[in-house]
Amino acid sequence: RGRRLSTPAIRRRKGGAALVCLTAYTTPMARFLDPHVDLLLVGDSLGMVLYGFDSTLPVTLDMMINHGAAVVRGSDTACVLVDMPFGSYQESPEQAFRNAARIMAETGASGVKLEGGEEMAPTIRFLAQRGIPVCGHVGLMPQAVHVAGGFRATGRSEEEAAQIAADARAVAEAGAFAIVLEGTLEPVAAAITAELPIPVIGIGASAACDGQILVTEDVVGLFSDFTPRFVRRYAELGGMIAEAAAAYADDVRGRRFPGPEHCFHAPGRKEAR
Ligand code: KIV
Ligand code: NA
């Protein structure tokens, strides 16, 4: 094949055509999305979206590796990145390398993403210099929900805006090939995008960014526990699934399913029906 978009190719899209990114957790979803996107992120949001946890903190490395490998199997052209889960990289650059190397080796993904700003810069440099492409993630950082006190927009005060800009700068200088900027006020996102030499992929961070990412289940109506204001719904698949289940239930109870065409018959004994 060899047609998959590489992390250097993503890096070169800075200031060019908007980078189109979505999350994917499974092989079938990856197959649906792959022809339409530049990048598929196996996000640790899967803990909330697929597993019903109320934060991303319980997500394990094994979960990320299993879903990462499934998404790589379901795609041929998108660049696939896998999130490093909480607790798998914060302790030290060495711990981060050991776990990122497992993700790379066991999934076939093209890179990893991890949350954090200035404090993670030495770790990002350690990985990037040792063969692991890293995408940063600053602004609203869901793995830090207990420190932030909730999922809320960032960059509201001058001080917080300056810290996010410093974090983004540190991540870029450490060698990240791209950075996700989540839940950040538009002027702050615009200034960071203008300043950084790497693509800024926004989520709730305005159209000023170099690209956009959303959680696919939010986009297609498959996750309704909570829909952030920055999501646009393009389909209501959850409602369609419920309607399909109701119609099936009716047919089974009314003995209208299965029909003769769904049944196996002995060869050569074609009953008249
Ligand atoms: O986990 C995730 O899905 C993410 C994206 C929303 C950026 O980190
Ligand atoms: Na994530």
TrEMBL record:
Binding residues annotated for 3-methyl-2-oxobutanoate, in chain numbering: D44, S45, D83, K113
Cell compartments where the protein resides: Cytoplasm
EC number: 2.1.2.11
Function: Catalyzes the reversible reaction in which hydroxymethyl group from 5,10-methylenetetrahydrofolate is transferred onto alpha-ketoisovalerate to form ketopantoate.
Species of origin: Teichococcus globiformis
Keyword Phosphoprotein carried by entry: no
Binding site for Mg(2+): D44, D83, E115
Pfam families the record matches: Pantoate_transf
Catalytic activity: (6R)-5,10-methylene-5,6,7,8-tetrahydrofolate + 3-methyl-2-oxobutanoate + H2O = 2-dehydropantoate + (6S)-5,6,7,8-tetrahydrofolate
PANTHER family listed in its UniProt record: 3-METHYL-2-OXOBUTANOATE HYDROXYMETHYLTRANSFERASE
Gene3D superfamilies tied to this protein: Phosphoenolpyruvate-binding domains
Cofactor: Mg(2+)
UniProt keyword terms in alphabetical order: Cytoplasm, Magnesium, Metal-binding, Pantothenate biosynthesis, Transferase
GO molecular function: 3-methyl-2-oxobutanoate hydroxymethyltransferase activity
Record bears the keyword Cytoplasm: yes
Pathway: Cofactor biosynthesis; (R)-pantothenate biosynthesis; (R)-pantoate from 3-methyl-2-oxobutanoate: step 1/2
Oligomer status and interactors: Homodecamer; pentamer of dimers.
Full protein name: 3-methyl-2-oxobutanoate hydroxymethyltransferase
Family of the protein in this entry: Belongs to the PanB family.
Residue spans crossing the bilayer: none
Domain of life: Bacteria
Enzyme active site: E182
Main location: cytoplasm
Record text on cofactor binding: Binds 1 Mg(2+) ion per subunit.
